[in-house]
Amino acid sequence: MTLFVVCGKANFTNLSRYGDYSERTYRRQYQKSFDFIPFHAQTIAAAVDPSREQIAAIDCSFISKSGKQTWGVDNFYNGSISKSQKGLEISVIAVVDVSAHQGYTLCVKQTATTDRQPITPAQPTKKKKKKGKNKSKSKAKAKTEPVISERVKGYLEQIKTTRSHLPVAVKYLVADSFYSKKSVVDGVIEIDLHLVSKLRIDADLRYCYTGEQKPKGAPRKYDGKVDLSDLSRLEFGGELANGTKLYSQVVWHVSLKRKIRIVYLLDQRNPDKQRVALLFSTDPTIDPIRLYEYYKSRFQIEFIFRDAKQFTGLCDCQSRQQQSLDFHFNASLAALNLAKLEQQKTPSDRSEASQPQSFSMATYKRLALNAHLLERFISMLGLDPTLIKSHPNYDSLLQYGSLAP
Q1: HEC profile for the chain?
Q2: How many domains does the chain have?
Q3: What is the pTM of this model?
């Protein structure tokens, strides 16, 4: 796994340059099956104390890939350019240490291709052509909805498969607004987890009726539609450190068909442009501040994608086979997990009273490369390893070029 960090490009050629095996050996190893989820789980258990506050997070990342014969090539959303693009997609479930602000990969799965052909009747009938944009929009919607539905099923299946490997302390799954669908919510609740996610500002919500019921007739359930322009019926939860005001309430979501806790964030620091966000949790008893902290911690999974793409060659696999791609994605993210675990073993982190240090993959890569080069020099020049490593300037050579702590 250290080779992924040292060479930075996790293709067979670069691995063979820095490693002890040939390119063919690495290629053959990639074709073998290995259950990475228990391996990731053991790494997380060693890096994060079970008593620490932890959540699970899920998100997808776009992987650029050229060609037509690679398994899984399809049109996926690329967040860097804010539109769909041809390539690959991976879905990652991570465990986040909330207090340490650190995320660890637990499961990575490549998104499979789907049939984008819309469902048509057995005997299609000719219809008159309609002018305007509505026809093109309806066709695009008909092609997109089945694709999204099939992919959501795959994400939900991944969540259920990974559930047994999550730490006992994990009770919440945090995701972005794409996952705020009834099928996902029901599936998460079914496996004894609660979902924390984001809603549209115009979500169809109802206030729950808490007044006295009539002696006859069906009990009253709702007390009007939620209008976020009127915050008088929401509970003020305080002002955050950045000046954002927080409001909360337990309401009924019409589409999800359940009670949820919502948190409405209002940022009025810029009078010309007011910024708002609507978060929610399927756990009505969750503390509003805690809900906000959990959703903010979700962004640690974005740092996992960034570090893996920049330093452990997540996008550099040259294979087109499904098994090799799966091995590569898991190995790349496993190298990142092990780098974070290695940081936990440093002397500065052993004290329980010390604060968790921020992790820098750029620094760790520089340290690993320096150590690799020094070992190479010692071996090739026939030097005494004990004499070299006991020299007072050896640590300075290891730190050469690294970022200041």
Answers
A1: CHHHHHHCCCCHHHHHHHCCCCHHHHHHHHCCCCCHHHHHHHHHHHHCCCCCCEEEEEEEEEEECCCCCCCCCEEEEECCCCEEEEEEEEEEEEEEECCCCEEEEEEEEECCCCCCCCCCCCCCCCCCCCCCCHHHHHHHHHHHHHHHHHHHHHHHHHHHHHHHHCCCCCCEEECCHHHCCHHHHHHHHHCCCEEEEEECCCCCEEEECCCCCCCCCCCCCEEEECCCCCHHHCEEEEECCCCCEEEEEEEEECCCCEEEEEEEEEECCCCCCCEEEEEEECCCCCCHHHHHHHHHHCCHHHHHHHHHHHHCCCCCCCCCCHHHHHHHHHHHHHHHHHHHHHHHCCHHHHCCCCCCCCCCHHHHHHHHHHHHHHHHHHHHHCCCHHHHHCCCCHHHHHCCCCCCC
A2: 3
A3: 0.85
